[in-house]
Structures are given as structure tokens and as C-alpha cells.
């Protein structure tokens, strides 16, 4: 099912028809969005709980019947929420948190790599493990270790 699945109500049953149904999904009126569809539009789980609350419909998961029912939200209600000032504020805060998390992850990665590069004993252990696991790489491991100690060979 597409990440931004939408659905059409079945008459009299209160459930939704899947967009992969009888081949008319392109012509069917798209009236509901799944949580995956909301995520594709930039919503987070917290935003869904805070701004939309309870789903408008539930549908049985057609792929795994024992899985939780799929939560569906009316497109008109979603669009109205997206036009609100509250959505803009919550969305901006989520974007700032996401950007800060990416920056922090990059910083932690750089710090770990710097510590690894600075730790001679650890580097030797890593190259020893590589040599043991892959004997054909022993010469390359030795070359890299000696290059660290004495610098690259003159050309």
C-alpha cells in the first residue's frame, strides 16, 4: 500500500475500502488518510495525537489480520488542521527538534571517529582483528599502521 494511502468509505459498513482494491483506486474519491499518509505529509505521531485526536475510521489490515486496525483520518479534517496556526507552530517545533537531533548525531559520530583515530592501541587492535579474519589484508593493515607512525612514503 502506498505510504500516502487514502480510502473511500464503504456504504453501510463504516469501514474503508483499500486503494489497492478493484483497480479503480485512481478514480475513487480520496477521502481518508492513514497514519503513513500523514507522515508523508510531514506529520509526527505527537502532532496526530495533539491536533487530530481519535481517528475518523478504522480498517482491518488486509495484509496481517492480527495486526492493529489501520487508523484513518478524514482528508478535510487533516487539511483544516494543516491550515491552522497551531499546526504551523507545532510543525516548526518538530522541524527544529529534528534538525537539532541530526546535528547532535553528526557531532557524536565525529567525536567517536576522532577518539578512534586518536587511540593508537585501539587502531592496532582493529587492524590485528582484520588481519586475523582476512589474512590477505595483512599487508595493507601493516602499511596503514606504518604510514600512521612514519607518514606516507615519498613518491
From TrEMBL:
Disordered: annotated segments: 1-28
Protein name: Uncharacterized protein
Amino acid at each position: 500500500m502506498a505510504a500516502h494511502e487514502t480510502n473511500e468509505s464503504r456504504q453501510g459498513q463504516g469501514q474503508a475500502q483499500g486503494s489497492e482494491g478493484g483497480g479503480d483506486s485512481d478514480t475513487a474519491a480520496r477521502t481518508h488518510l492513514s497514519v503513513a499518509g500523514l507522515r508523508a505529509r510531514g506529520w509526527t505521531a505527537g502532532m496526530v495525537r495533539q491536533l487530530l485526536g481519535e481517528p475518523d475510521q478504522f480498517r482491518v489490515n488486509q495484509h496481517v489480520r492480527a495486526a492493529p486496525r489501520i487508523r484513518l483520518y478524514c482528508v478535510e479534517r487533516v487539511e483544516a488542521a494543516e491550515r491552522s496556526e497551531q499546526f504551523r507552530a507545532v510543525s516548526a517545533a518538530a522541524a527544529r527538534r529534528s534538525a537539532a537531533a541530526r546535528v547532535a548525531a553528526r557531532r557524536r559520530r565525529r567525536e567517536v571517529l576522532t577518539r578512534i583515530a586518536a587511540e593508537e592501541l585501539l587502531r592496532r587492535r582493529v587492524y590485528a582483528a582484520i588481519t586475523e579474519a582476512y589474512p590477505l589484508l595483512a599487508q595493507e593493515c601493516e602499511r596503514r599502521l606504518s604510514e600512521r607512525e612514519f607518514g606516507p612514503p615519498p613518491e
